[in-house]
Every structure is written in structure tokens, then in C-alpha cells.
Write a structure and sequence with these properties.
Layout (H helix, E strand, L loop, with lengths): L21 H4 L8 H6 L10 H12 L12 H13 L10 H7 L25 H12 L4 H6 L10 H14 L9 H14 L5
């Protein structure tokens, strides 16, 4: 089951987030991402959170053996150093503006946040088909949750235990309390990771 390309009916519910849903993910002339790259914070070894997850997954797309743990440890440092040296950047391991521009900037189809998130919250056990589609659309674009999403026969109406487990795992990686509740911090983290890794393509 592929969620990408099936969200036209619910895209209006996330007008505040460019890149969420078909309308913004599949536009004919996507915006370039230099301004988004410039907005990203400096990241250094020892840090933890969604920006680190996005960094790791962006490097993973380039062939580095990273899993998106959310912790900037030795393996991430080795990958960042290698990437920096190969792109004529001082191999400090600190991900600043030059590294972000090389990794994220200047690429089409990297959609970024246009305003505050308007997605409704999602409580464990809630019955909300539209919000479940939005959640599935985000998770499908993030390793390793894409495998779970695409192997589901359909997106359920009810936010059940299997989906909660995926969200809780993501929350732990992103440094968010692993409650399974999909609130503003979790939506922000999900969309940030997809934007950083460049996953908003069709």
C-alpha cells in the first residue's frame, strides 16, 4: 500500500505546512531549499533530536550506513566528516551553514514549513481516518517506518497499537516523550525530518 499520491482529499487539512500532502509534495515547480537549509541549527557530536534524525537520514540517502537513531555518535561523526571533506568543507564534524547548504540547499522537491502546524492531535485509540492518512503519509517517508506503512493492507480508521508503536519509536529517536500521542511537537518533528532528508517528492 502506497500512501504517497493518495492524499488529495485530506491535503486541505494541512494548509499551514508546505510539503504535507499531495498538493505541495507533487507541485510541478517545487521551491528550492536554500532558505530552509539556512534556517537549520548547528549540530555537533553528542546532540540528540529530530534535526539529528534528519541529518542521519539525509546522509543515509547518499549511501552512508546510518539508521536515524537521533543521537549524534561516532558513526554519524565519521559520515559527516567524510561528507564534509568530499565537499571541500572543513571536516570538523560540526554541521553548520556550509554543510547544511551542501546537504540540503539547492535541491528541488525539498518542501519546508510555511507556517504553524494545523494538524489535529491524535490520541491512542482515536477514530480519525483523515489524521491517520496524514500520519501514514509522514511515516512512509521516514526510515525505517516506511516498510511498516507500505506493508499494511490499508490505513486504518483507528489509531491502534501497531501504529502507536511506530510513533513511540519515532518519538524516542526524536527526543520526545514516547507517549504515542501525536501532538504539535510530534508533527513538527515528523515534518522536519522529512524536509531535512528530502523526502517530500512524489
Amino acid at each position: 500500500m502506497a500512501v504517497v499520491g493518495m492524499l488529495a482529499a485530506v491535503a486541505t487539512g494541512v494548509a499551514g505546512v508546505a510539503g504535507a500532502g499531495v498538493a505541495s509534495a507533487c507541485i510541478a515547480q517545487p521551491a528550492r531549499s536554500e532558505s530552509f537549509a539556512a534556517s537549520l541549527p548547528q549540530v555537533w557530536p553528542g546532540q540528540h533530536g529530530p534535526t539529528v534524525v534528519g541529518l542521519q537520514l539525509a546522509l543515509r540517502r547518499l549511501g552512508y550506513p546510518l539508521e536515524g537513531t537521533g543521537f549524534y555518535g561516532v558513526h554519524t561523526l565519521v559520515a559527516v566528516h567524510d561528507y564534509q571533506v568530499k565537499h571541500g568543507i572543513k571536516g570538523s564534524g560540526i554541521v553548520g551553514s556550509r554543510t547544511w547548504q551542501a546537504l540540503v540547499g539547492g535541491k528541488p522537491a525539498v518542501q519546508t514549513h510555511a507556517g504553524p502546524l494545523t494538524n489535529p492531535g491524535l490520541q491512542p485509540g482515536a477514530r480519525d481516518q483523515q489524521t491517520m492518512w496524514l500520519l501514514a503519509n509522514a511515516l512512509e517517508r521516514i526510515h525505517p517506518y516506511g516498510d511498516f506503512v507500505v506493508h499494511q493492507p490499508e490505513v486504518p480508521e483507528t489509531y491502534g497499537p501497531q501504529w502507536q508503536a511506530q510513533v513511540k519509536d519515532f518519538q524516542r529517536r526524536a527526543g520526545i516523550k514516547a507517549s504515542g500521542i501525536v501532538g504539535p511537537r510530534t508533527w513538527q518533528a515528523l515534518y522536519s525530518v522529512v524536509s531535512i532528508e528530502g523526502g517530500w517528492g512524489c
